[in-house]
Amino acid sequence: MARVTLDDEVKYLKGVGPQRAQTLAARSIRTVGDLLYYTPFRYEDRTRLASVRELLPGQTVTILVKVIHCGLTRTRKGVYLYDLAGRDTSGPTSGGMIRCKWFNATYLEREKIFREGQRVFFYGKVEQDRYGTGNLVMVQPRYEILPDSGEGNGSSLEIGRITPIYEAIGNVSTAMLRRIIWNAFPAADGHIPECLPASVLRKNRLMERRTALRETHFPCQVQLLDQLARFRTPAQTRMIFEEFFNVGVAMALRRKHTQWLPGIQLKITEGVRKAIKQILPFHPTTAQKRVLKEIAGDMTSPQPMGRLLQGDVGSGKTIVALEAAVLAIENGCQVAIMAPTEILATQHYLYSKQLLAPLPYRVGLLVSGRATREKKQLKNDLASGALNLVVGTHALLEPDVEFARLALVIVDEQHRFGVAQRHELIRKGSAPHVLVMTATPIPRTFALAAYGDLDFSVIDEMPPNRTPVATRVFAERDRAQAFEFIRRKVRDGEQAYAVYPLVEESTRLDLRPAVQMYEHFSRNVFPEFRVGLLHGRLTGAEKEAAMRSFRAGETQVLVSTTVVEVGVDVPNATVMLVEHAERFGLAQLHQLRGRIGRGAGKSYCLLLAGEPRSEVADERLRVMAETCDGFRIAEMDFKLRGPGEFLGTRQWGIPAFRIANLLRDQEILEWARQEASTFVDHPESPEELAAFTRSLRAGWPERYSLARVG
Ligand code: ADP
Ligand code: MG
Hints:
Blueprint: H1 18-25, H2 32-36, E1 42-45, E2 60-74, E3 80-88, E4 97-103, H3 106-110, E5 119-128, E6 136-139, E7 142-145, E8 162-165, H4 174-188, H5 198-203, H6 209-217, H7 225-229, H8 234-260, H9 270-279, H10 286-299, E9 306-311, H11 317-330, E10 334-338, H12 342-356, E11 363-366, H13 372-384, E12 389-392, E13 406-411, H14 419-426, E14 433-438, H15 444-451, E15 455-459, E16 470-475, H16 479-491, E17 495-499, H17 508-525, E18 531-534, H18 540-551, E19 557-560, E20 573-578, H19 586-593, E21 604-609, H20 615-626, H21 630-648, H22 666-681, H23 686-699
Parallel strand pairs: 4-6, 9-14, 9-15, 10-12, 10-13, 11-12, 13-14, 16-21, 17-19, 17-20, 18-19, 20-21
Antiparallel strand pairs: 1-8, 2-3, 2-5, 3-4, 5-6, 5-7
Helix pairs in contact: 6-8, 8-22, 9-11, 10-11, 12-18, 20-21
Bound molecules: adenosine-5'-diphosphate and magnesium ion.
């Protein structure tokens, strides 16, 4: 057999031609190493196949049967049904018959998946056939067809063992993956070098990489079944540890690097205290005071601050950030605030200007929508130091944006920016202090994985006099009732949002429903009110005008897309209508609802739910009606979405783990992180640390950006 190394392309492996290689590449599997790190998401115990004769309804089992007959039929109600009858041909209790059914599965017929005489594994739940006969049946079971090769017990990979189940990649099925990976091991054997430092391996008694990889794919010890399902066999544990350790070392290196940077050590003078007092329109909450103290502590120390500020929507993060800004500006430095959307940037800009009005500061707004001349002037003022505070979007990252003395970078709603973008802005200063703000309640494991290089602060208290937003779900037929409610409130002098979901706001076509809704509202539903429209495709000036007019109370009902989702703050707006609420995710609904309930008045959220909708959508709406607690909602969100989809989303800026799972592997994360810090801060041998750092940098170019410092 041809030898391969982990760095060789997969196409050199047995069973992988150029075509399959291309399919695999779509999942970022390019090298043999990538393939071996594509691990099973579940295992089936096929050491003991169930005997069909002994099956009981309710059991979930794997069986091996011979296809007796199969084909497409139609039920009396006209539904297509693919029906298969199989006979157990193995073992002493053979002969039992079972049926398998698939509804609407015309593809099974069209693609001639099953043939008489084939031997097939079925995995699924056994039920009593509801339609007469009293036979046992499996409805839509998973299946795997054995290759034709003779009688016997099939190939050793499929049965008589614990079988790894892979997520199929395009038309490369779980069975093919299993075969390809199986064949890869002898080819790569002897070329799977250890990658963890020897001292770490020894100290933590971890299995060596070569064995761990093999046993993660092809576990052999039956007694480990329960451990296997929990991903806690020594092999799996080692692989999960490895992933977390790598990220942990990257973070620890960045943290250490930052500690050695000469930060901008600011001073809290009498002037600073006075200035802060002047801008505060209210008494800060205890949580706000505590967090400001943590931030000020960092900014007055010799090292640059790196801090994540977490707080539910409406908890008052902005004011704390502006207090930090005052500290920097009073020390003769500049501050940059970066927000993910023009609307949010504009909002922050207007709010900062208003709040900082008592102080002689110059504040600017930099978004790409502005006129070139204005931008040029702004950039000049930033470079000369004439401007004290700039608020902006990605436009701040443009290469010709330069600062005279940037001391504080504030990034709002961080999960919308990548780590790389955060660092681009940081590089515009010389080791500035960094404050990252997010309203998304992040579970501890996620926070550690995504922001392990930062310190955490939490505002866990709402400003006083907030009453939770009353939320109610309206069915389509109660639409008129919902409108009447809004009419009453607006007549009383309050303001309302009406939010419409859009898939994308990239084209005019996508926008049509929102624009139509605006026209419908202004002409037919609320002709007596002033209705405004806000969406992502408006020019910067148009957005600013729309926001300003709503804030001033000129616009009474603002029809908007989800661009209002983050940060927008108009306390007099007490009503929110969400169209097609069933299409939104929980986190998004929570963010949206956070736009109301910001003043002293009681606020109301009306969720219009269209049909049809899934059970999960119903559950989401129920959760929204039940609670306003961001942490509870986040928790439910994880549960409803499941870790798979959750981790698939890049929006968290969390590195994509291949084996590790942040929900499942919390304790391994903490352990690996601890070991990583120790390894970096107190290495047994500096050579070992240097060598590991080098290999991390080389092997993980894109993830290593984690450890690249501003
Ligand atoms: P976040 O950015 O955390 O979602 P904001 O900073 O926008 O929240 O604050 C939400 C609202 O609460 C704003 O109108 C703000 O002026 C107000 N607010 C913040 N802190 C306090 C406080 N301590 N007392 C009263 N109102 C506050
Ligand atoms: Mg905010």
